[in-house]
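Exercise: predict the fold of this chain.
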Amino acid sequence: MSSESVAASRTATRGVPWLYAIVPIGLLLLTLAAIVWTGAGLRDNGAPPIETLAVQRVWLPEQHEIKVSVINDGPDPITIAQVIVDDAYWPFTMDGDTTLNRREQATLTIPYPWIEGETHAIVLLSSTGVAFPADIPVAIESPELDAQSIWRYGLIGVYVGVIPVALGLLWYPLMRRLGRNQMNFILALTVGLLLFLVIDMFQEAQELALEAPATFDTPVLVPLLAVLAAGLLITLSHWLRRRGERFREQESGGLILAYQIALGIGLHNLGEGLAIGSAFAIGEAALGVFLIVGFTLHNVTEGIGVAAPLVDRRPAMKHFVALALLAGGPAVIGTWIGAFTFSPFWTAVFLAIGVGAILQVIYEVGRMVWRSQQRANEPGLTWTTFGGLAAGIAVMYATALIVA
């Protein structure tokens, strides 16, 4: 056999395993295509269509106009035939065809003379007579996306997020004077703060997931995203540590951890801003002010957690400014989103990622406490560290009661 034949035979042999993998995948794709194309042989079985319409948002851009954003949340097409407002049929227009396919979105415009401060009941009727309610609890003109509104709502986010976190960071000089046990108490307190936040965020994300269209299966997506985000960040942290162990530990290890804490807290404050912005957007001004006061007090403790990894270092003032903006700034973005537009699905996704980020931070801070305790030949959980953990949870719970 010639050398060319031997080489060709080896090349063909090496290509065979890929062929073994490609053929089953190709056949599987063909089978799936046939199932979708034929409806598994049951497309025309005479059963009535399954109609599910999810109302995403109802807003009042101006007097005598109501807008309703909807999405087809069912497997079959749905046609919006009629609209009832306050027990009367009313004309409407849609941005596109009145028939929506699966996961297709549309916005209805209803020229209705709504009354400020009143409650209005809206019902969307499909062509088969299925009713989908979309009520307005308190009619108030929705905020316009202009410079004045952006400034006003952005200032609310600063009050709720940036200022209280910055006030918490002012404890840094006092924290530098603490001994090892006292510092481990503060670090354990930070873990308690973050543990409360992660549970609170997960609960909030699940509540929003139930409001999102069922077709996205958001309640299942939330824990999966949280686990994946935590795993990705832990893997990235280990990779960075291997790439520059000496530099990270001696120069910037605590600073990077502080930024990680600030990022996780910032994603949590995004959710708080959403709650405040949404309250003002639907006319619940009293509730909005109440949330501002409560969240401002609640978030002062978060600055202590951000400053904790920095006590044995002297970072420049610019880092404290950046940390305050990173932890508190997302409250501004959340307030804008809540006031001008809102999506339960994407909000739940961001909160789930925030849960993962905070889980990673809990892991990193826990490692700091554990190493410090080992160097002193003490177990990781002592009365000091347990007291800090319990105190962190208690402080967050007590301040959360204000806005509960």
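Check your answer against the key: The longest strand covers residues 53-62.
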